[in-house]
Design a protein that fits this description.
Blueprint: H1 7-21, E1 26-31, E2 46-51, E3 64-66, E4 72-73, E5 80-88, E6 95-103, E7 110-112, E8 116-117, E9 123-131
Parallel strand pairs: 6-7
Antiparallel strand pairs: 1-2, 1-5, 3-9, 4-9, 5-6, 5-8, 7-9
C-alpha cells in the first residue's frame, strides 16, 4: 500500500533534514562503493573533505530540496575515482547521509564536475537534490 503526503508535509520533512544534520556539516567523497548504511564505517579512500555552508540547503519546494551556496574543496586530499559521498555532522563524528556520485548529468545522487580526482585538484559539487517520497 502506497501512502501520499501533501507538498507541505514533504517540504517540512526535507527541512527537518537540514535541521537535524546541523550547520556547517562535513562532506566527504570517497572511492569505491558506499558502506551498507550510514552507521557502518567508511570504506575506500577519502578523496575530499569539505565543510559546507551554514545554510547548506535551499528552501524546500514542491517536495524537493537542493544545495545552497558553494560546495567545493579547493584542494583534494588524495587521487582516485569518486564512488560515493557521506554527509556528517559538523564534528565529523556521525554520518547522517550517504549516496552515489557521478559526473554532472550522469544521474548520481550527487554530481561533480569531474569524478577522476587528483591530489590538490579543486572539486565542485554541481548537483545535489533530495526529493521526498510519498508524492
Amino acid at each position: 500500500m502506497a501512502f501520499q503526503l501533501s507538498v507541505a508535509a514533504r517540504n517540512a520533512t526535507l527541512a527537518a533534514i537540514e535541521t537535524e544534520i546541523g550547520v556547517n556539516p562535513i562532506l566527504t567523497i570517497s572511492t569505491g562503493s558506499k558502506p551498507a548504511d550510514a552507521a557502518t564505517a567508511n570504506t575506500g579512500t577519502v578523496l575530499a573533505t569539505m565543510v559546507l555552508p551554514s545554510d547548506w540547503l535551499g528552501a524546500a519546494t514542491s517536495g524537493s530540496i537542493a544545495l545552497s551556496g558553494t560546495w567545493q574543496d579547493l584542494s583534494a586530499d588524495d587521487s582516485g575515482t569518486a564512488g560515493y559521498f557521506r554527509l556528517h555532522n559538523n564534528a565529523g563524528t556521525e554520518c547522517h547521509m550517504q549516496g552515489s556520485i557521478s559526473a554532472t548529468g550522469a544521474g548520481g545522487d550527487m554530481q561533480l564536475d569531474n569524478t577522476n580526482i587528483a591530489t590538490g585538484q579543486q572539486i565542485n559539487i554541481t548537483t545535489f537534490t533530495i526529493t521526498a517520497g510519498g508524492a
